[in-house]
Amino acid sequence: MGVIHQHFRPDPALCLKDPESTDVGRALLGHGLDLMLELGLEAFTFRKLAQRVGTTEVTVYKYFANKQRLLQFYYQLYWLWLRQVGAQEVERSSAPQEVLAHVVEVLCGVWPGALPPLQLDPAGLRKLVIAEGMKSYLHKNVDDDNARRLFHPYKELSAFVAARLVACRADVPWPRSFATTVIEMAHSLPFLMEHLPSLTELSSRKDLKQLAQHLLHRTITYLEHAKPITSK
Prior knowledge:
Blueprint: H1 23-39, H2 46-53, H3 57-61, H4 67-92, H5 96-107, H6 122-132, H7 142-147, H8 152-168, H9 175-195, H10 208-225
Helix pairs in contact: 1-2, 1-6, 4-5, 4-6, 4-8, 5-8, 5-10, 6-9, 8-9, 9-10
């Protein structure tokens, strides 16, 4: 299958001006990703980003209202792209469990050689989601952001993974809940492996393929042994 040429566009509501419409905007996105990875969200400021790009702080604010919106832009972009990588894996095989295995690998960062083109480094986006992604929704205004559908790409990915579970077993209980659990573990366990290694045996090797095998084993066990939901 050939590479799907698709330009991934996060929700325009995240921006005051489309950053991909100008050279300065694209520079802000590229350097912003690097700087946020380097400093962390708390220490990251638009003043520092402007200095890195060689522009003014006022210019940065023409594109994004605050750094929270910039983080959410990266967050959406990653999930949009990851959903497309998973869709490619569906096309590679008609066997539901084989597809599921490939999708779990994709979630864990074990990516195939042919990837959809992305305007920013996907490995960098994954690192940012692992390190800072929870901050895109763990805040006081999460309900307002949710009402604005700012987490829609993540929800779409969860629904996509849930559909792979249902394809393997039509009566699997709580497919959306389990799909979200797998997605979260695929991105929280690498953080523990790197920073809190005593919390997981996976830390000894820091091997993403081993992580994928672990989560696939948990998934297959759930599919085989979870009891169907019965109405009372």
